[in-house]
Structures are given as structure tokens and as C-alpha cells.
Write a structure and sequence with these properties.
- The protein has about 240 residues and is an alpha/beta fold.
- It has 3 domains: about 40 residues; about 55 residues; about 110 residues, Ribonuclease H-like superfamily/Ribonuclease H (Nucleotidyltransferase, domain 5), CATH 3.30.420.10.
- Helix content is about 45%, strand content about 15%.
- It is rod-shaped.
């Protein structure tokens, strides 16, 4: 759709170059004679508004009209009418800008290490399930990464860091002490109680990188196997 200002310019061009009367030009381009004779006021100030908007949108690429107008009104102390500023904003086609996408900076995931012997690396993780009466339970699983052997499954309604330590001590009594234990960054695993216990036992804790569960793939696969085994026996709820 052609704007009235553009039709006015075309009518003036027809009058100046084609020797057409003003009335005929206005009728041809569907504008009034008042519109034809209109002379824009405050051109210098409009140019100042346009320059200010261009500078703001170049500096702050994520700002829309609202933030630009508030900055001009409250910071620059320019008391321009918001309709006038928005008209210039649209004439500059700043309302058609494409906002840049925010890309998350992700760390390069570390490869999953393969142990060479038993008790070299254990993995532990929590699972969540539900009883037949609707109550939620937690399962604490521990495996040996060397042969994917399940070393223990602790089940309870709540499994804080103290219960994690008790389960690990019970496994160490018959299995021996591991050199390293891999886990995610859950609150039970990063607690001071568990870290102090690991220092006393001379066990290294290897935390996976955030949002990279594939670095703990052995225990994740064991969790899936646990669910599939329960389904194979036809147990839908405990």
C-alpha cells in the first residue's frame, strides 16, 4: 500500500515534469489538494530524532521501540511525542529488525573414560519412582564401570548424603574401595559431608559437566535396564 506522502511526491512529479494540473494530479493519485500543498514542519528535529534512534538501535541491538523511547524520555530528557517518535521509528524500518539469537556457550564434552580393571571407577545415580498408593520413592544405584556390575540399590522415601555414605560403606566392606566415583552435580553428591568422607577414604570424585548426562552413560544405561526389568516381570507399581 502506497503511503499518502509517497502519493504526494508522485503528484508533484507529474505536475513538474508532465505539465499536469494540480487538480488532475491529485485526482489521479487519490490525494486532496490540502495534502498536495502540505509542507512538513520540524524537519531538522525529525532528523535529530532519526539520528538518536539509529544510534540507540546500533548500540543496543536487543532494544525495541519501548526501551528506545524510555531512554530518550528519561535519560536524554527529550520530551518528544511518542506517536511522532514511533512514526519516525517505522519510517526507518527499525520495527522490522531481526533480533540476534542468543547462543549458549557450551563446553566441549569430555569423552567417557573406560576403566581397565575392577574398582577403578564406580558410577552412582538416583532414580525416582512411585508406589501403588502414589507416594514417591528414590533409588540409589551404584555400578562398577569396568564390567557394568550392579553393586547396590538403596530404596527409600528420602536418601540424603548420610544414607549415600552408609550405602557406599556397605559396598566397600565386601567389594573393596574404588579409586574414583563418577556422579552428576546433585545436591547430595556435592555436599560437604560426602566430600569430607571421600577425603578420609582417599577416593576421588569425578563430577560430570553440567547438561552432559552422556558422560555418566554407564549408570544411565543401568537405570534404563532397571526399569525394563521391572516391566518384563509385569510390575507396573511397587
Amino acid at each position: 500500500m502506497v503511503k499518502p506522502s509517497q502519493r504526494r511526491e508522485m503528484a508533484r512529479w507529474a505536475v513538474e515534469t508532465k505539465a499536469v494540473s494540480i487538480r488532475a494530479a491529485c485526482a489521479s493519485f487519490v490525494i486532496s489538494t490540502t495534502c498536495y500543498r502540505y509542507v512538513a514542519k520540524l524537519d531538522a528535529e525529525n532528523a535529530q530524532i532519526a539520528d538518536s534512534l539509529l544510534q540507540l538501535t546500533e548500540t543496543h541491538r536487543n532494544w525495541g521501540f519501548g526501551l528506545c523511547f524510555l531512554h530518550l524520555r528519561n535519560v536524554k530528557k527529550k520530551h518528544w511525542n511518542h506517536k511522532r517518535v514511533y512514526r519516525i521509528y517505522c519510517d526507518l524500518e527499525l520495527n522490522l529488525r531481526i533480533k540476534p539469537k542468543k547462543r549458549l556457550e557450551r563446553e566441549t564434552p569430555e569423552p567417557l573414560a573406560v576403566p581397565a580393571a575392577k574398582n577403578e571407577t564406580w558410577s552412582m545415580d538416583f532414580m525416582h519412582d512411585q508406589l501403588a498408593d502414589g507416594r514417591s520413592i528414590r533409588l540409589f544405584n551404584v555400578i562398577d564401570d569396568f564390567n557394568r556390575e550392579g553393586l547396590g540399590i538403596e530404596v527409600d522415601f528420602s536418601l540424603p548424603a548420610e544414607r549415600v555414605i552408609r550405602s557406599l560403606n556397605q559396598i566397600i566392606e565386601w567389594r573393596g574401595k574404588p579409586k574414583r566415583i563418577r556422579s552428576d552435580n546433585g545436591p547430595e553428591y556435592i555436599s560437604h559431608i560426602l566430600k569430607n568422607w571421600a577425603e578420609q577414604q582417599s577416593i576421588e570424585f569425578a563430577y560430570i559437566q553440567p547438561s552432559n548426562p552422556q558422560q555418566n552413560a554407564y549408570i544411565e544405561r543401568y537405570n534404563i535396564w532397571t526399569i525394563c526389568t521391572r516391566s518384563a516381570f509385569g510390575i507396573s507399581k511397587y
